[in-house]
Every structure is written in C-alpha cells, then in structure tokens.
Amino acid sequence: MQIYKLKDKKRDIQCGYCQHDGHNKRYCPTMKAHWENNPQVHETYDHLSLKGVDKTMFPTNYQKFWGDHDAQRQFRAHWIYMKKRFATNVETKTKKRRKPKCGFCGSTAHNRRNCNKLKNFVYVLSETNKQYRSQFYDKFIEGMGMGAGALLSIRAWDGLKKVAIATSFPTQDIMFTNLLRTWSDYHTKLRVQTMLGGEPFIFNMSNDWYYDEDPYRDDLGIWKPMYSNWARVYGVISPAPNKPSKEWFMGQEACFEWVVKKRDCHSLMYDLSALIKHFYPHNNLRSKLGAKIYDRYYTK
Fold first, then answer.
1. What are the two backbone dihedrals, phi and then psi, of residue 196, each rounded to the nearest 5 degrees?
2. Average pLDDT across the chain, whole number
3. Average pLDDT, integer, range 61-78
C-alpha cells in the first residue's frame, strides 16, 4: 500500500510566517521577536508603526521577489494569531480533558490495543486478500502465464508494439488493493520489471493491461480497474517457464496490522468496502465487522 511505502518518509516543515525551513509558525523565533519589538500594537493594531518588520525575515531566495511590504503583510495576517499566543493579559481557560476512546472504532470502553473490532477487521482483510490472490493466480499466472521469464507484448514509449521479457514479478505486492484508484492511500502498485530492446522497462500491472488483447475483455467484472485504453501491456506471448505452485503462492501473506494502527474503521471501509464485499469468502462478514458497520456500508 502507498500509505505503508511512505511511512518512513519525513515531511518537510516550512514556517508559514517567515518561510524558513525547519520549524512551523508556532515555534517561529522571528514572529515572537516581531511581537515583542512592537508593543504599541499589542492592544490596538496600527500597521504604520511597525518596527523591524522587513524583508530580511525571509530566506535569501524569497528576498529577490518579496519586499518590506510583504513582511508587513505577513504581520497583519498573523496579528490575531500572535495576540492570542503572546499577549500576557489574555486569560487562558483550562481545557477539559476528553474522555479517552478507541482510535479505530470510537468506543470509550477500550483503546485501540484492546479493540476486538480491530482484530476482526485484520482477519477480514487477510481473508479477503487470500481470496483475491487465489483468483489472481487462476486468471493471470495459471490462465495467462504471467511471471518472471514470460514474453510480453508491450506498447513501447515510441508507441510501437514490441516484445519484452519479464525479469521480475513481485508476488508479495499482489494484494486486493491493486484494484483501488492509483491515487488512493491504500493502492498497491504491482510493478513488473522487464527488458525491452536491451533497456529496462517497468510497468504497473495494476492498471496497465489493454482491453483488446484480453480473452475475457467482454466480461472484466471486478478486474476492470487493471485495464485501460492507454495501457502498456497487450498480453502474454509466451508463458513464464517456471511458475510458482499455487500452494506456495497462497503461503505469502500480507501484514495488515500496520494500516489499522493508522486509520479508523470508517476511513478504511470507505475505500475498501466494495472489494471486501466481493472477495471475502465466508458468510460471517456481518458478525466480524459488527452490525453497525456492516449495515452502514452494505444495507441501503
């Protein structure tokens, strides 16, 4: 999932006041200095009397385009914020502490660590994924011969149809989230590496199959998101010489414990409910998800 792939990526922080990197406006030393150096505006704002608020507050590259009036504009825009934050005569009310609740299901009776609905949801995702992988194996690996070593008919960058050989087929990335929109946080890319004319050529199998070359093109059903008229792959010319056994293939399991720690059940159900409904192989989905969640997403 993209949300998992990007979990270690650090966000760049830029201050919304002085535009310098490394802090936000809450901890901006320039903002605090501007406020302390202009006590005449603490109660009634008079932007004409500002002192020391000029373009030197910005990084050097900003100073090429922004002048003193831009610095004063920033002060005006943040004056109310600064007054609430720095004024000494503002009475602060003690915030009432919210009652702790589960970040996954919202219950106040437990936390995320002890949430049975979370554990059941992980089970549902795992069983859904197993069924997806089983059908994927039957359709693409057994049915079409997809895998490392397969010869593929590819639309190259020049628009011509050419032959490529698959050099890498990441079976660990075959998840039911392949079928989500590519910009979804939960989409999983299935990036197949090939050699095309002696050069590496990578495509995302999750949405790179042409309609007109698939034998099931008249009834794509749930697999339709993997097909496009702008795709790169026409089909398999020659199957992979050594396909994995289905028993081994089904032995690979995805870890869904991480995603349920970062999202609540409704955020996940909003994106995944349709795929869960289609691939979940058992008849106990309502009891596993809970009646409220199940009825909200599957009962009109």
1. -130, 110
2. 89
3. 92
